[in-house]
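Lecture 7 notes: from sequence to structure.

We start with a single chain of 336 residues. Read the sequence below before looking at the structure.
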Amino acid sequence: MDVSAPISDISGEHKVYLRFLGKARHFLFNLRSFNLTPAEPIPAAATKAVEVSVALGCAVNGTAQPSDIAAAVKMASQADVALVFVGVDQAIGAEGHDRSHIGLPGVQSDLIKAVLAANPRTVLVISSNAPVAINWEQENVPAIVGGIFAGQEQGHAIADVLFGDYNPAGKITTTWYASVDDLPHFHDYDVRKGRTYMYYQGKPLYPFGHGLSYTTFEYANLEVTASALKPQKAVGIALSITNTGRIAGDEIVQFYVHVNGSKVQRPIKQLVDFARVHLEPGETKTVSFALGHDDQALKYWDEAQQDFVQEPGKIDILVGASSADIRLKGAVNLMV
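Now the structure, written as tokens:
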């Protein structure tokens, strides 16, 4: 039996496996290893490997020996680019296991400062299961990449972003506060007292929906199809978005509303919908949303009626790149 498969642009030692599929069990056989030399020499630039050195620096819980940080600093000083991975994991904060503060654990911040002092070309990678208050880092580190709940393939995903093989487009789904002092008491769960993007009045470290890209986008030409939103009807919202950068990328366009009610406290803004759109450099596309009269964002809970109800009045239409980066505004009157 002859088995063949195309091979190109690779060299070095390789192992060959054959997988046989059976009804109950699968079998994998290692046939042999071999060395492959390309038929034509590969240019030196294409074969130049990226040399990566690794030092512990500190543990996830922020504990470290002075020699650990010293080794990381020495390695960073000899590198073209230094990467520092920090954050929290299940051992630090999880369901039923709360963190005592929202900063980086232990000496993680000290490690970042020491590495940055040794190499100004430092990239900070947040590999975390929760927001962290990285105020000094935001002000001083030249590049920050967020890998939040990135999963088992996060190593490949983050590497693709760092090497420029993938243009990131993710947006955070939580508000990142600058300090625990920005939040109400820990045991007060009323979001209307300053929790989440819907009610927080201050300036967050990173707002809900925030996320940058290797390219830039321009929003324009907001259109609202009707001036009034009547029962059992919907209004359309459309806008154009243009990739104004030099590489292809995705933008996540976010559609919020603010209800100008007077009977109860209403959110500053509330997300209704979002759309992910891919754009080549210089390309423009139209993004459309629909706001139905019965949309939950237009209602509030009435204690007397024990039901969600509506209040007639002006609805602000807000479209942007995050909850704090609103690019276009419109309005419609809600009829009840």
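The first helix runs from residue 44 to 47. Keep this in mind for problem set 3.
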